[in-house]
Structure formats: structure tokens, C-alpha cells
Amino acid sequence: MTEAVFFDLDGTLADTALDLGGALNSLLRSKGLPEKSMDEIRPVASHGSAAFIKLGAGITPDHPDFQTWRQAYLDEYGRCFDRETVLFEGIDALLVDLNRRGIKWGIITNKHAAFTDRLVPRLNFTVPPTVVVSGDTCAEPKPSVLPMLYACERAGVRPENCVYVGDAERDMQAGRKAGMKTALADWGYIAPEDTPENWPFDIRIGTPSALLDWLV
Q1: Which of 135, 126, 46, 142 has the alpha carbon at shortest distance from 91?
Q2: Distance from C-alpha of 183 to C-alpha of 43, rounded to nearest angstrom
Q3: pLDDT at residue 216 is higher than 80
Q4: 7 neighbors 107 (Cβ within 8 angstroms)
Q5: Which of 9, 32, 76, 80 would suit a FRET pair with 114, their CA atoms being 20 to 30 Å apart?
Q6: The model scores a pTM over 0.90
Q7: Strand partners of residue 165
């Protein structure tokens, strides 16, 4: 029996790409660099600030200017994080249905608490999450199992009775290693060069409502 369903945030529960990309383009404009299109932004939107800095400036974490760029990007995102971010279609209805079935739900994200704690209340979930685990809640973020096990402990559920829904390889890896069932959200930020068919998922779903038909 399913006791809880946990979700990734960016690209799974919420479409955050417009604000994540908006922060990047604002930073690029300030430096006189060309902006990036949404077609370029969406595939990296689940991969954190380092992916955006590489996309926008070609700078990787080993570059001496990386930390300066990273802080500037995070400052920009902190100013616009909730302007255009919305829940994906069907997500709130899914969460309401889970609640009706007596199934808890929660968030396990690699987004740092400085942003998660501000964004989640603004998403106006009809049913609030039982637990929210951010990227810096535990000693290690996904694909580590630590956030997964911590979420289970806080929710009072066993991993083997849980499902994790995400749109990235690390999501499927973390869920599987924790002993959860895993569901790949096809509506998320999956890049053309990704090979999701090789990721360790139990089911691949095209819409949030498809999850309900699979749960037992």
C-alpha cells in the first residue's frame, strides 16, 4: 500500500523555468552578453545554478570567476523567483486526490531552503505538503539517499511504501537507492541529449493524473 508520494519541485511540481531563465537573462543583459531562449533554458532548468552559468557564460565551477557569477545569479533569482512560476497543469488536482485516498505527499528538492521556503507557500497548494526537504536540509543532496530517508522519517512512512516522482536521472537514482518506487515525469525538463530510457524508473508518466491509475 502506498503511504506517501514525494515529488521533485523544479520541473515536476512547478514550472520554474521562466523565472530561473529570467534571472539568467537579467544577469546576461547586465554584462552585455546575449540572452538565452527558453528552448535553451528549459533543458537545464532542473540542474541548478551551475548549469545556468555554464549555459549563459560558458563558465564551469573550476573557473576562478565561477563563485562571483553564481552569487550574482542567485541574487537575481532571489528577486524574481515567484513572478511567473506556476504549478504544472493537473498537479494540484493530483495532490487533492492523494489526500482523499489518505496518501501523504511531500517535496524533496535540490533547491536550497533559502528559495524553497519562500516559493512553496506561494504555490498555493490546496493540500499543503507533509514535509519539505531542500537541497541543504541534509548533508548531501540527491542523488544521495539522505534526503529521501529524512523525508520518510519526518512523514512517518517507510521507503518501500513510497513513490518518488521526478524529471531527472538523479531523482530516479535517489528514489531507487532509498527503496522507493520511482515515476519519471515526462512533462519535466528532460534535455534532448538525455537518455531517460536508461534511468532507473518503475513507470514513465505523461500527465500527473496518470500516476493515480498506477498507485496501489
Answers
A1: 126
A2: 19
A3: no
A4: yes
A5: 32
A6: yes
A7: 7, 183
> Cα-flanking dihedrals φ and ψ of residue 6, to 5°?
-110, 145
Query: What HEC string does 68-130 produce?
Result: HHHHHHHHHHHHHCCCCCEECCCHHHHHHHHHHCCCEEEEECCCCHHHHHHHHHHCCCCCCCC
Identify the DSSP state of 51.
H
Residues designated as active site:
8, 10
Using one digit for the tens of pLDDT, what is the confidence trace for 88-138? 999 999 999 999 999 999 999 999 999 999 999 999 999 999 999 999 999
Q: In this predicted model, what pLDDT tens digit does every residue of 57-79 receive, in sequence order?
A: 999 999 999 999 999 999 999 99
Rounded CA separation 63/68 (Å): 10
Give pLDDT tens digits for 16-40: 999 999 999 999 999 999 999 999 9
